[in-house]
Amino acid sequence: MKFYKILITLLLAALVIGFFYFLTLLSPSAVPEAPVGYVDPTKESAEILKESEALEAKFEKAAAAGAISAADLENLRKAVRLQEVYIEKARAVSSDRSPETRLTALRRKLQNLEAEPSHASVADFEKSAAAAEAVGNLAEAEKLYLRAYDTQDKINRNYWLSKYRDVAKSVELDRKIKNLQVRPMYEQSIEAEKKADAAVKKSDWKTAVHEYERAVEISRDISVKFPTSGYNDYVRIQRLRKSLDSLKSSDLKTEIEAVLLEAAAARKRGDHAGAADKYASAAARQKEINVHFPRSMHASEEKFAEYSALSAESQSRIYAAEIAASDKAFTAAIRAGDFAKASDLGASLESRVERFRADFPKSSDITDEDLMRIRYLNFTAADMPEIRAYVLASLLPLDGGKKMLKTEVPQKLYEKIMRENPSRNKSSALNPAESITFEEAKNFCQRLGWILGAKADLPTLAEYRGAVGNLRYADIDALSWNGSNSGGETHQVATKKANDRGFFDLLGNVAEFVADGADSESCTVIGGGAQTSTDSISELPVSSADKNRRSRMVGFRFTVSEQ
């Protein structure tokens, strides 16, 4: 208990002492007096600046008089140093940057004066070096250019504010030094090239290759070791490499020329397999040139493509000849009416032609039209007997050896061949096919020709008129469906009287397309239609029609001739 009383007493005493100490802290602080010998920094820096400016003015006076002595130069140096001291002292009391601007200007004046003698030395060294180079004293020229370079480099490093600092001059001097160093190498390269050219003229290929390789190697070394020299000639290196590659590939080029002659000879005598092999050999040699000697004047991707294409073309002609033989047998079977044989040949022929067109799309021996013809004949195989029987039974001879359908093309025949019927009057399958375009009539003839294995076409004007004959005493109404007896509609073919040559409906029913007189937009029709007057029909009317316009009064017939 006694211990706790003592402890409490001590704590109270500490609190009292702390309280009075706190009160002393709140009392006013005493202001320190200025130390003895204090100097105002603002006043001192102003005196330094004044002295620097006075020294600068003294220097400028001497410079204006045109006689700067060593003492004047020292005054400028002192002005610079004082300005530096002034800036250090003024920085503590001001953020003004103008003193630093003045310092830079002073330093620039000083460096211009200090660097001027070195600048003159650079010019003297360079002039002397050029003179030594001109008389062939290359060692002395290099030494003098080196002294000029070193002097200019010191100016650039030590007097970087001066007007004599010139990095471009250092680069120029360095280039001149390197040019002198590399010149002997360049001359060696030139000499090697001359020897190579001379060897080529003598057909000394071994020496030529060796000297070209030496010229290239030296030029490449120059490019690597002295890239900034004036003798680093990339264009020349490429030209040398081209000459070297051309020389090395000349044997292959000679082989190609010989192989091409052999290929042409094989092609001429019909040896397509031999030609294909020779062209492939030429392509292989050309590829070797392109890969191993890419800079050669003989390198050519176009030539490689050309020889490859010629090889493919010759190869294609082997297959084309085989296909042509099968196609000939196919056509012969159709002409002979042996449709079972034609069907067997056609199926095989179609697949072979499809493969050929895929493998040789640019070949003109077997065309897309050939493929279209074979596909069509295979598709129409079931109807071919009926079509051929009808057509062959309905043909009559013309003057000149052709035959012509004795009637207008009936709708049933048109539909069998074209697989459509655009006619408007479909009251009978024996009505004439109408409302078709000129091109559709031409396509019909093409397909019919395929089926017959012969050439089918529209008749000419002369052929048509020849079939009509003399109308002077003709009974027009008996021969034709015209405006006076047709009721304005077409009728079944061959329901009027045939003319004296056995042809029906050459007059009336529908006007008919003829082969001649067509251009890009129009065509010619003849004979008049069911709405044409008797008087007009008797004159065998001929008129122009729009090739692409469909008319229910226009149809056609065809002629057939052996191919």
Keywords:
Methane Monooxygenase Hydroxylase, Chain G, domain 1, 563 residues, paralog of FGE (formylglycine-generating enzyme), single chain, elongated, 4-stranded mixed sheet
Largest sheet: 4 strands, antiparallel
Q: Total number of β-strand segments?
A: 8
CATH class of the domain at 401-561: Alpha Beta
Q: Which fold does the CATH topology of the domain at 401-561 refer to?
A: paralog of FGE (formylglycine-generating enzyme)
Structural class, from helix and strand content?
mainly alpha
CATH architecture of the domain at 401-561: Alpha-Beta Complex
Q: Please list the strands of the largest sheet in the order they lie side by side.
A: 1-2-8-3
- Taken as a percent bin, the fraction of beta residues is under 5%
Distance between the termini: 148 Å
CATH superfamily of the domain at 401-561: paralog of FGE (formylglycine-generating enzyme)
Helix content: 55-70%
Put simply, the count of helices is 19
- Cα radius of gyration in angstroms: 55 Å
Could you spell the SSE succession in H and E letters?
HHHHHHHHHHHHHHEEHHEHHEEHEEE
Instruction: Characterize the overall form.
Output: elongated
Q: Which blocks of ≥5 consecutive residues have pLDDT under 50? A: 22-39
Averaging pLDDT over every residue, what do you get?
89
